[in-house]
Design goal:
This protein is mostly helical and 88 residues long. It contains three helices and no strands. The N and C termini lie far apart (57 Å).
Length: 88
């Protein structure tokens, strides 16, 4: 650990950001599981609702920089495809 006051502060900030990013990425995994479970069950209405929730969580994580914006777009696109296939 660094001895300079500014370096100590930066280290604390990096730990906070890492914890926040870890929580956001974990939340993304959970909402993806919820969408997939709804699709697996064949419930169109709950799948659409879960997808809308997942979109907002994933987009928020991309905005905060926890995941890359292209990674977020890919996840939303794949989930949307699964939900749209269910509706057909």
């Amino acid at each position: 650990m660094a001895n300079h006051k500014s370096a100590i502060k930066r280290h604390k900030q990096s730990l906070k950001r890492a914890a926040r990013n870890r929580a956001l990425r974990s939340r993304i995994k959970n909402v993806i599981k919820n969408v997939r479970a709804a699709v697996q069950a064949g419930d169109n209405n709950s799948a659409i609702e879960a997808l809308n929730n997942a979109k907002s969580v994933i987009d928020a994580a991309a905005t905060k920089g926890a995941v890359h914006w292209k990674n977020a777009a890919r996840k939303v696109s794949r989930l949307s495809k699964h939900v749209n296939d269910l509706g057909v």
